[in-house]
């Protein structure tokens, strides 16, 4: 059975197999930066124009949601990427359960 060249040498990247490229990450980062900038601008506009009279208060939570959501999403992406096991062999060892001999168990037929 033939295997691809990258798999034989062990250089196969898991993210590249999923189709996630650096260009895709850059596009997501730029769009989240744009959303965060719109939220910050909305908060600034409300502060300059409507804050002295406390009008248009709907702009504050809406601006905060737009401003902070991309930060929270990127933080969760970075933390989840740090927690993913990079070596598939280590992942297999971590998910398998240890098998104990029957002589130590309660269901030992010799007892």
Automatic annotation (TrEMBL):
The chain crosses the membrane at residues 24-46, 58-78. It comes from the Eukaryota. Keywords: Membrane, Transmembrane, Transmembrane helix. PANTHER family: OS04G0577375 PROTEIN, OS08G0113900 PROTEIN. This is Transmembrane protein. It comes from Flemingia macrophylla.
């Amino acid at each position: 059975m033939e295997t691809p060249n990258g798999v034989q040498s062990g250089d196969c990247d898991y993210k590249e197999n999923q189709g996630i490229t650096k260009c895709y990450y850059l596009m997501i980062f730029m769009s989240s930066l744009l959303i965060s900038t719109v939220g910050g601008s909305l908060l600034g506009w409300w502060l300059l124009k409507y804050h002295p009279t406390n009008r248009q208060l709907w702009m504050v939570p809406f601006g905060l949601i737009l401003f902070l959501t991309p930060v929270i999403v990127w933080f969760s992406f970075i933390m989840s990427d740090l927690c993913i096991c990079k070596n598939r062999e280590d992942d297999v060892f971590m998910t398998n359960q240890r098998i104990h001999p029957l002589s130590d168990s309660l269901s030992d037929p010799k007892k």
